[in-house]
Specification:
By secondary structure, the chain is mainly alpha-helical. The protein is 72% helix and 0% strand. It has helices at 3-30, 39-59, 75-96, 102-145. The radius of gyration is 22 Å and the shape is elongated.
């Protein structure tokens, strides 16, 4: 698998799994499921958008020759995909477990949804490290090999 293909697969995992979640929270918000209009997105935005924005930012970078290179260690790719799916499924679980009744929903938001952002944020940190490593590791390696960062070689002196 090439580095570019691995990045594309992980990008699609995030887009396919996060866009419906954003749509669900949006629909819940416009149907007044929450007491205040900003509760759903106040919970979701810090848990999803940092990773999505990093992925979208890398899409704007042109393809380099490193994207066509075969990955030597695919464990980072598989770990980042599995961690991303696990994390996004946890977000779906929190949203999907919401009760429908207004009083129960208030209790749920207060005692489950808001505190969940603490442990979900911690899990997100691990996911960001894995996703960031996949997306940025080869950029750093490319920078180390660029001609402007290399030290010039010393010329051998004759007779030494």
């Amino acid at each position: 698998m090439t580095i570019g293909r691995a990045r594309a697969i992980l990008s699609w995992v995030w887009v396919i799994l996060s866009v419906p979640l954003i749509g669900i929270v949006f629909l819940q918000t416009i149907h007044d499921n929450y007491e205040d209009w900003d509760i759903g997105f106040g919970w979701l935005i810090p848990l999803v958008f940092p990773v999505l924005s990093m992925i979208f930012a890398t899409w704007t970078v042109t393809q380099t020759h490193r994207d066509r290179i075969e990955m030597k260690n695919t464990y980072v790719f598989y770990l980042s995909v599995l961690a991303s799916i696990f994390y996004l499924c946890l977000l779906y679980f929190v949203v999907g477990s919401m009760p429908r009744e207004a009083d129960a929903l208030r209790e749920y938001v207060q005692h489950v949804m808001r505190p969940s952002s603490w442990y979900l944020g911690t899990i997100q940190a691990v996911v960001v490290v894995l996703v960031g490593k996949l997306f940025l590791e080869h950029v750093a390696q490319e920078d180390e090999r660029s001609p402007t960062t290399r030290r010039p070689r010393r010329k051998k002196r004759a007779g030494t």
